[in-house]
Write a structure and sequence with these properties.
With about 600 residues, this protein is an alpha/beta fold. The protein is built from 23 helices and 23 strands. The protein folds into three domains: about 170 residues, GAF domain (Beta-Lactamase, 2-Layer Sandwich), CATH 3.30.450; about 150 residues, Reverse transcriptase/Diguanylate cyclase domain (Alpha-Beta Plaits, 2-Layer Sandwich), CATH 3.30.70; about 250 residues, TIM Barrel, CATH 3.20.20. β1 and β2 form a beta hairpin.
């Protein structure tokens, strides 16, 4: 399947090991880009590295601002992802009429009309991205043009190989000394080949340190590095000589359990690894620190062999993401869910243009006056084949594919247009609307302009729009996030922190980012009346928020007792089925 090449584990590991992601521009690559622009007579040339959710420009010339400063775009703006998916050159004479890319947002935002790209392929065969040329006018690409790009792409690949050889050991993690992802996948491939010839099984265990960011925030990055080194040592001490472990990401580890007897045996190994990591405290800072971790397990047996290392690793990490317990294992339904997500990914493209998407609005009620003060816009998807698809299913898929950028624009425009109509009908109500924003939207260079345009087109005042972000966005803590949020706040748009209290809540985030509202997670509201300390905890949150001049919104109010307690505690606003269920736009005037 061509699309699977973009997410191929070997390719992504080679991309990480290149040492170029999020690094300063490479002078050698930018010289090649300038040469391409001169030889081909085009305004723009890029060395584009295509990741799971974005493309990053390791070299570029002619790219307009603010894209040139950001040096990345979401996949919604990527032609180069098609070069990777096909693993072959892509020539487009006029993108506006080409069905493959006609609705790609780069046509609108970056004026990409003619495009020529060739694979940026390393010696090992992994395609990292594309070396491409872009014109803002239609163009018929010639065989000479393609040959020039092919030669320059080969030179760019050589430069990347040289950079990797000088700065990165692809076989070894620089901090822990553990095998790198590429070497780990080589070990796994050999183990999978052996399991076909004998009885037994091979297992992959994925481990995630749930407290790693908290340790970094509270004790500093040196303590975080000390923790990673200690975890690596414990994993080495727990494993057998034939097993292998690698650090695959900042706080993620992968373990290869070779020659386990069966799934039950593999599960015992996974539980032993979890115990080794979490049972004893770590010497970090002034006091010993216990940490928590999740473990995901995937098993391939001789009877049901999975020969693709990337597939087995993906199954383990999927089990990790879906884990309800400390240790979770994958099964056949895991692959079924992965297949379902792939079908959703394909069906989601352009769903709002086909009229499959609608918005519903849940009231935001002032708990002191019981007046409706605004609404939260909620996307709903009814697919002709799949039926009603839950947001918890399609929103992560939209974020991963880049479709969230176009879908998010549609939601923002539609919500602002509906709000403008209600404000005209009820001028004294001073209504507002809240729209949920994904991290990839904040990283999009033109997101501020998108918001400002939606407000200007509909006549909605900026302070009537609230953008809701999650703690996950703040934890990522990219410079682009803070810059965009501060710019939006200066424009008058309000920012809400959603699901407050469910993640690694930190007061530092409330001072570093321009937050106006805290949305208290429904789990705290549900505990009112059942847990003695629930009211005290909510009182603490509300008191802290008031002291920081922040308003609070309690989510999930379902009983009169909850509403009365929250009002007495001083919570500003409430949402929940007791106060109003989500309704389509045409029903809102009746509610008002």
């Amino acid at each position: 399947m061509p699309g699977s090449r973009v997410l191929d584990g070997f390719r992504l590991a080679a991309l990480r090991d290149s040492g170029l992601l999020d690094m300063p521009p490479q002078a050698s690559l930018e010289r090649l880009n300038r040469l391409a622009a001169e030889l081909l007579g085009v305004p723009v040339s890029l060395v584009s590295l295509v990741g799971e959710r974005r493309q990053f420009f390791a070299g570029q010339t002619g790219l307009s601002q603010p894209w040139a400063a950001h040096r990345e775009t979401p996949l919604s703006h990527s032609f180069c992802k098609h070069v990777v998916a096909r693993d072959a050159p892509l020539l487009i004479d006029d993108a506006r009429t080409d069905p493959l890319v006609a609705d790609n947002l780069a046509v609108r935002d970056l004026d990409v009309i003619a495009y020529a790209g060739v694979p940026l392929r390393l010696d090992g065969g992994e395609t990292l991205g594309s070396f491409c040329a872009i014109d803002s006018r239609p163009r018929c690409w010639s065989g000479r043009d393609l040959q020039i790009l092919t030669d320059l792409a080969a030179l760019a690949a050589d430069a990347i190989e040289l950079h990797r050889a000088r700065t990165v050991d692809p076989l070894c993690d620089q901090l822990t000394g553990l095998p790198g992802r590429a070497l780990f996948e080589t070990f796994l491939a050999r183990a999978l080949e052996r399991v076909v010839r004998r009885e037994g099984a091979v297992a992959v265990v994925a481990l995630d340190l749930m407290d790693f960011r908290l340790i970094n925030d509270a004790l500093g990055h040196d303590a975080g590095d000390t923790l990673l080194l200690a975890v690596a040592d414990r994993l080495r001490d727990t494993l057998r000589t034939e097993d292998a472990v690698c650090r695959s990401d900042a706080d993620h580890f992968l373990v290869l359990c070779d020659t386990v007897d069966d799934e039950a045996d593999a599960l015992r190994v996974a539980e032993r690894l979890h115990t080794a990591i979490t049972a004893r405290p770590y010497g970090l800072g002034a006091e010993p620190q216990l940490i928590t971790a999740r473990v995901g397990l995937a098993v391939s047996t001789c009877a049901d062999a999975v020969l693709d290392p990337a597939e087995l690793i993906s199954s383990a990490t999927t089990a990790l993401a879906d884990a309800d317990a400390a240790v979770a294992r994958t099964d056949r339904s895991c692959r079924a869910r992965a297949g379902s997500r792939l079908r959703l990914r394909n069906a989601l493209h352009g769903a709002y243009r086909r009229g499959e998407m609608t918005l519903e609005y849940q009231p935001l009620v002032d708990l002191r006056t019981d007046r409706v003060r605004g609404f939260e816009a909620l996307a709903r998807w009814h697919h002709p084949q799949f039926g009603n698809v839950a947001p918890s299913d399609f929103i992560p898929v939209a974020e991963g594919s880049g479709e969230i950028v176009a879908l998010g624009e549609w939601i923002l425009q539609r919500a602002c247009a509906d709000l403008a109509r209600w404000r005209r009908q009820h001028p004294d109500a001073d209504l507002s609307v809240a729209v949920n924003i994904a991290p990839v939207q904040l990283r999009t260079a033109t997101f501020f302009d998108t918001v400002a345009t939606a407000l200007s087109d509909t006549g909605v005042p900026p302070d009537a729009l609230t953008l809701e972000v999650t703690e996950r966005t703040l934890l990522d803590d990219r410079t682009a996030h803070a810059q965009t949020m501060h710019r939006l706040r200066r424009h008058g748009v309000r920012i809400a922190l959603d699901d407050f209290g469910t993640g690694y809540s930190s007061l530092a985030y409330l001072t570093r980012f321009p937050i106006d509202l805290l949305k208290i997670d429904r789990s705290f509201v549900a505990a009112l009346g059942d847990q003695q300390n629930a009211a005290a905890l909510l009182h603490g949150i509300v008191t802290m928020a008031n002291g920081m001049d922040l308003r609070t919104v309690a989510e999930g109010i379902e009983t009169e007792t909850q509403r009365e307690q929250l009002r007495d505690l001083g919570c500003t606003y409430g949402q929940g089925y007791l106060l109003g269920r989500p309704s389509v736009a045409s029903e809102i005037p009746g509610l008002l």
